[in-house]
Each structure stands twice: as structure tokens, then as C-alpha cells.
Design goal:
It is a single chain. The chain is α+β, with helices and mostly antiparallel strands. Helix 2 packs antiparallel against helix 8, helix 4 crosses helix 5 and helix 12 runs antiparallel to helix 13. It is built from 13 helices and 16 strands. The strands form 3 sheets. Strands 1, 2, 3, 4, 5, 6, 9, 10, 11, 14, 15 and 16 form a 12-stranded mixed beta sheet that branches. The radius of gyration is 24 Å and the shape is globular.
Length: 443
């Protein structure tokens, strides 16, 4: 009997795993909930082919960060920057159009918690801070402006009464991540304000899904992340809301089921999904029929909570207190790799009960067409053919391993320099984590 080498055995095992996963997916397709999902999804979207002649200036924004979690604090070091892609396909920093503009902003975001007693039992209240080592930033202006914005954000955060119980103390890490995402969004808005005026930019594209800001809700307060965004920008929530229409998201990370669903609609190269008015009507009618039947599909009972999740793949709330939703549209340039385009919407296009906003659907068709064609007027010669400029910003802001080690060393040294035993104890919790990550060569 011929003995196979270890690599051949591994290849055989991986191939078996793929086929078993495929078998499970095919079996899932027989499930009535999956059948309803596929009918709604396949009806709502229609495939369109990219067109030529949509060259226009576009902005790209991304952030690189390194997060650290202590027992009593969460801290992130953030680098956020952007590029302008001109009408003729050149990539330029904003300072090419506006003098004295920093190429990249650097921030330290931190969130601390304090346990308090109350009628609802022990819980935590939070304080947030934003600091910068830079003399000037694109987003806020001077260092003093950063301090004022930090106070506004912390005050707004305290008013939200975030639902974080005593038993869920680690949630404050998620608040830090939430603030990271909102800061990146605020930077994109500020970049658009400058770049639309100076470079004729039509919109700014963020690297990643806009749904990353859908994470935390307050108790008993009609407020959400849009209020924090407004505090960062120094405007009221209504003004912040008016600035979202020119910001889009592009996600290069999609799960397997999303890829498979997208491929069922997009068959070929240079394709993007858009709203099908007739199909959306059909999808809405199907959902209304399921509701009337007492949540049954083809005679099979369905859980209402699961049916309610079906349209969340198409559109979902991101700032629910202010009625802001995100609509999602898959696209593929090479026929294999799938990315997803996100657009802010002033409400849902399609709801789980079958309600359809026909006027919003019509407007969205034109918005998706303009955005997709403009975004992909120029592309990178990389796998998946991402839009030119999309990966360049990632490369610009990403924190390399060496830079991260420097930041970690400074965090530990700063605690030692305070001479304060409690400060050094806080840093000691970080030091133990770093030793486990890198070995025992951390000073």
C-alpha cells in the first residue's frame, strides 16, 4: 500500500471538509425559512452591469488601530487617513488641494467605567476621552479643539444610559470600538466637506460595512450613536444626519452564505445588485402573505423572530432613534469575489411585515447606479479588482508590528514615570497580556 505524504493527507482532509460543508448547506436549502429567505432576496435584487463614463472624483477613508483592554479601562491607538481619487484616476492626499492639511490623524480613545448603585441595582457609568499627539488634525482642528470634542462626547455618552449591567463589565471594550467606528465616520464627513469644495468629490467611501456602528442602545433615551457623531463634529444631530448621504461603505469581508446568495443574483463579471421595483413588490407581497397565514410558508410554520430577520440582510437600522437605516448591495468584478456596498437610507426600503417604501426604492436605484459605477471607474490590479484607492488607504494607515511594539513599550514606560503605584498596577495588567502574546522578553 502506497503511503501518502503529510501534505497530501491534509489536502484530502480539507477537500472532505469542503464537501461536507457543501452537503450541509444543500440540506439547509430544503428548510422553509431558507426557501422564504431566498425568494425574498432573489426577488428584491436585480443584476446590473457596470457602465463606462462615470469618472468623477471620489474620497477613500480607512483607519488602523490597536486596542488594549485593562480591567478598568479600554484604550485604542487610532490612525485615520484618506485619499482623493481624481477624475483622471490619480490618487492625491487632501493637502494637494488644501494646504497645511495633515496626511493622517492620530488619536488615543479610551473609556473608563465607574460602578454606581441605583434603583435598578449596581451598574456602570462610563466616561470617554479622545486625545491626540498631533498639533493639528483634519477632523477637529487644534489640540484644544480635540479636548473640547472629547468633553462633548463624554457628556453625550453619559446621557445615553447605556444598558451595561454590573455582570457585563467587559462591555466597555465594545463602547471603545463603537467610538472608533464613529470617529472614522466623522473623519469621512470632514474629508467630504473639504474635498467636495476643493476637489469636486461626489462622495467618500469607507473601508468596511456601515453596520459596524450598529451595536449599543441606551435605556429610556431617544438617542443613539448619531448623537455621539454630532458631538464629535460639533453640530446638532439634525445637521449630522444631513451629512450622511455622501458617505458610503464598501465591505470586502462577507460570510459564506452572503457570497452564495449574491452569486445567485450576480452571474458574471462587472455586476452589481440593485433594487428591482417589480421584484421588491413581489418580495413585499410574499412577506405580507406569510404574516396573514400566521407565519407559515408553503404550509410550514415559521418562528416570527426568524422571519423578522430576513429583511435585515437587505436593510437594517443603524441609528434607530433617528430613523437611519443602511441598505446593502452585493457586487462582483471578477465573478468570484463578492463585496458589499452600503448606503445610508432615511428609513427602511422593505420591512419584515411586507411594508415597502416605493418612493425610497426608486431613489435608491439611482443612488446605487451612480455610486457603483463611479466607485469602480478605476480599479486596482488585485484579486477581486477593488476600486483604485480602496487598498491604498489601508496600506497608509495600517499599524505595523514594529509600531505596535513601540506603542506598547510607551504605555508601560508612561506608567513607570508617573511614580504612582496604582498607575503601575493598571499597566501591569497590560504587561502580563503582552508577555503571553510575545513571550517573556518584554521589559
Amino acid at each position: 500500500m502506497e503511503r501518502s505524504d503529510p501534505l497530501s493527507r491534509l489536502l484530502s482532509i480539507f477537500a472532505d471538509v469542503y464537501m461536507e460543508v457543501k452537503s450541509d448547506i444543500l440540506a439547509t436549502r430544503e428548510d422553509p425559512l431558507t426557501g422564504l429567505f431566498n425568494e425574498v432576496y432573489g426577488s428584491f435584487y436585480r443584476a446590473e452591469t457596470l457602465e463606462e463614463g462615470w469618472e468623477a472624483p471620489v474620497g477613500f477613508v480607512d483607519a488602523g488601530f490597536r486596542s488594549y483592554a485593562f480591567d478598568v479601562m479600554s484604550l485604542s491607538y487610532v490612525q485615520v487617513g484618506g485619499l482623493i481619487r481624481t477624475e483622471d484616476g490619480r490618487l492625491e492626499p487632501l493637502r494637494s488641494f488644501v494646504g497645511e492639511t495633515p496626511v493622517m490623524d492620530t488619536y488615543i480613545i479610551y473609556v473608563t467605567r465607574r460602578r454606581v448603585a441605583g434603583g435598578e441595582g449596581p451598574h456602570y457609568v462610563f466616561r470617554a476621552g479622545i486625545k491626540t499627539p498631533d498639533e493639528r488634525t483634519l477632523l477637529f482642528g487644534s489640540r484644544r479643539d480635540v479636548e473640547e470634542a472629547s468633553r462633548r462626547v463624554s457628556d453625550t455618552l453619559s446621557r445615553l444610559h447605556l444598558d451595561v449591567s454590573y455582570r457585563s463589565q467587559k462591555q466597555f471594550r465594545k463602547i471603545t470600538e463603537y467610538l472608533e467606528g464613529l470617529l472614522e465616520l466623522a473623519y469621512a464627513i470632514r474629508l467630504y466637506e473639504y474635498a467636495s469644495r476643493e476637489a469636486g468629490v461626489e462622495y467618500v467611501c469607507l473601508d468596511g460595512t456601515l453596520l459596524r456602528w450598529f451595536s449599543i442602545r441606551g435605556r429610556g433615551v431617544r438617542a443613539d450613536g448619531l448623537d455621539i457623531l454630532a458631538a464629535m463634529l460639533g453640530v446638532n444631530p439634525a445637521e449630522a444626519l444631513g451629512k450622511l448621504s455622501r458617505i458610503v461603505g464598501l465591505s470586502k469581508k462577507t460570510n459564506l452564505l452572503s457570497v452564495m446568495r449574491a452569486r445567485s443574483v450576480l452571474r458574471g463579471r462587472n455586476m452589481y445588485a440593485n433594487v428591482s421595483l417589480a421584484g421588491a413588490e413581489k418580495a413585499a407581497a410574499t412577506l405580507r402573505w406569510v404574516v396573514r397565514e400566521g407565519y407559515k410558508y408553503n404550509g410550514e410554520p415559521l418562528e416570527k423572530s426568524l422571519v423578522d430577520q430576513i429583511t435585515m440582510v437587505i436593510n437594517r437600522p443603524v441609528f434607530p432613534a433617528h430613523g437611519v437605516w443602511v441598505a446593502r448591495f452585493p457586487l462582483t468584478m471578477d465573478g468570484e469575489n463578492v463585496m458589499v456596498l452600503d448606503l445610508y437610507r432615511p428609513g427602511p426600503i422593505l420591512e419584515a411585515n411586507g411594508e415597502l417604501d416605493r418612493e425610497l426604492a426608486r431613489r435608491t436605484i439611482e443612488d446605487v447606479r451612480r455610486t457603483a459605477n463611479t466607485l469602480y471607474a478605476y480599479r486596482e490590479p488585485l484579486e477581486g479588482e477593488p476600486p483604485l484607492g480602496f487598498m491604498k488607504v489601508d496600506e497608509m494607515v495600517r499599524l505595523r508590528t514594529g509600531e505596535s511594539r513601540v506603542i506598547e513599550t510607551l504605555l508601560l514606560e508612561a506608567a513607570r514615570r508617573t511614580g504612582d503605584r496604582d498607575a503601575m498596577s493598571i499597566a501591569a495588567s497590560l504587561a502580563s497580556t503582552l508577555r503571553m502574546r510575545y513571550g517573556y522578553r518584554i521589559a
